[in-house]
Every structure is written in C-alpha cells, then in structure tokens.
Amino acid sequence: MKTSWIVAFLVLLAAVVPTMTFSGYHLFQLTMVAVYAIAILGLAILTGINGQISLGHGAFYAIGAYTTAILMASWDVPYWATLPVSAAVCATVGFLVGLPALRLGGLYLALTTFALAVAIPQILKHKLFETWTGGVQGLVIDKPEAPFGLKLSSDQWLYLFTLGVGVILYVLAINLTHGRIGRAMRAVRDQPVAAEAMGINLAMLKTRTFAVSAMYTGIAGSLGAMVVAFVAPDSFTVFLSITFFVGLVAGGAASIGGTIVGAIFIEFVPNLADLVSKAAPGAIYGVILIAMMFLMPQGAGGFIGMVWRRLVR
After folding, report:
1. Which stretches does DSSP call E strand in the chain?
2. CA pair distance 266, 246, nearest whole angstrom
3. 250 and 266 Cβ atoms separated by less than 8 Å
4. How far is Cα 139 from Cα 131, in angstroms, rounded to an integer?
C-alpha cells in the first residue's frame, strides 16, 4: 500500500510539473518517452516474461501508427477512437504472426520477426496500398486539440493523454504479469516441459502472449503517430525494432518498471552521444551501452529494484 501511494504521487508529479513548466519541445520529448515505454512494455511481456525473442516489434508499431493515420486522414475518425481499432488490428496481426511460435523458438522466432520488420516498410510503399498509406510520401495528420475548452496547447494535451493511456496500460500489465497468467508465462519461459506437464497449453499461451504484446506496441504506434503528426514507411525501418530491443535490455528484460528507464535511454542517450562527439556519436552510444550492461547486468530495472528492496528493509 505504501508503494502504491508513492507511485501515485510520482505519476501525479510527472503529470503536473512538466505540463506547467516545460517548453513544447521538451514536452514532445517526454511524450515520446511515454510512447516508447509502452512499446517496450509490450516487448517486455513477450520476451522478458514469456521468453519469446522478437526483433520485429517495430512492425507492430508501424501498423498501429498507420491504422491511426488512415482513420484520421481518410475517415475523420476522432483520435481517441482510433486507439481501440489499432489495438484490435495489431492484436489480430500479432496472433497470426505468433502462430509460428507454436513450432519456432529462440533464434528461429527472432529471425521470423526480423523478416517481418524488414518487409513492413516495403509493403507500405507498394502501389497496391498507396491509396491508403500515401506511398513513399506518407500521411500528414492534425495534432489533437485539448477538449472541453481546456486552456492547454496540443503538446500539453498530448502529453497528458499519452501519460493517462500509459498509466492504464501499465496497471493492466502489472495485474496480468503478477496473476495466474503471469505465473504461467514465467513457467513456460523457465521450464516449458514442466509447465506443459502441469497442464499449461504452451501453444495457446505463447500465441495469446504474442497478441497482447503486439497490441501494446501497436497502441504505442498510434500514440506516436498523433505526437509526430506524420507517418512514412522510412520512419519504421528495422532499426526501430533494434532500438526497442536495446531499450528492453537497458531497462531490464523482465522488469515492468525498467521499461520506463529503457525508454529514457533510447530517447536521450543518442542526443547525449551526439553532444559528446559530433564525429562519432555511434561510438559514444556504444560505449555508454556497454558500460551500462557491465555495471548493471540485469538492466536498470533490476538495479533500481535491488536498491529499493534494500531501502525498504
């Protein structure tokens, strides 16, 4: 109960202080941190909790982003109403893509998802879908305005809206991973033979987990499209999937709270590396990542959890 009150206070602080004091650009950065955190959370449920390796979650991010962009640009659907549609579409695609998980595992599944990430940008550019996706040029959408006459800018409202959606999704993820289904996921990850002997349907659990993971990342893609107000195939290259995976590892693969640290890492560390060295920012980024893995082998989430437990004691 004490921890819950502390978390609630921190969320309230994170909502009020940046909205009242930060500039539009810094609010944009924080909003993207929230978006990336949701995307990495979906990957954490799949990889960290269930043990399925995915290198293609950028594809689901792209599907969610394009679902929202098409609905808003072509059919004038309200931005908030696109989220459940994106969630349903990405969950369905994730379930279908997750079917190979019934027979594939480890590096083979990772390679399958990697192929999906490579293929999606090319599919979005194809002339067959150009009418909907805008082809190479992409789609431009309008940023949502604050409702009910609230005196908030678009950046302020999108930050609060994204933060609110993120809080709901994190609460659902915590309840999922700490309940009976979460224990089954961990059992399948650690001892699949023993889990099956205990009556767990491995095939169905893996496929459903993949669908839930894709749904989370797709919702993040929808929110990202609203924030950036633009989608294009070249924005969703395979490098995006690798970036999500880096955020997962940096935050701690099995840590729900660590996904926030991972999102902060992939949003701000590249900028920090660029400030340190204009000539070789990639090298600085690599050094920082290696140092982080050396100092915190369980990721930032595991390190923070260890410190928190010691403080509580």
Report:
1. 139-140, 230-231
2. 8
3. yes
4. 10
Q: How far is CA 292 from the centre of its chain?
A: 21
Distance CA 173, CA 178 (A): 8
**148 residue type, one letter:** F
CA 175/CA 169 separation, integer angstroms: 10
pLDDT digits (tens, 9 = 90+) for 111-143: 889 999 999 999 999 999 999 999 999 999 999
Tokens 């923070």 label which residue?
Answer: 304
Total length of the chain: 313
Q: Are 219 and 86 in contact (CB under 8 A)?
A: yes
Q: How high is the mean pLDDT in each 10-residue block of the chain (313 residues)?
A: 80 94 95 98 95 94 98 95 98 90 77 92 92 94 92 95 97 95 94 91 91 98 97 95 95 91 95 87 89 86 76 68
What is the spatial distance between Cα 86 and Cα 84, in angstroms, rounded to a whole number? 5
Rounded alpha-carbon distances, angstroms, from residue 309 to 80, 122, 162, 214, 312 = 38, 47, 30, 32, 5
Taking only Cα atoms into account, the Rg of the chain, rounded to an integer number of angstroms, comes to 19
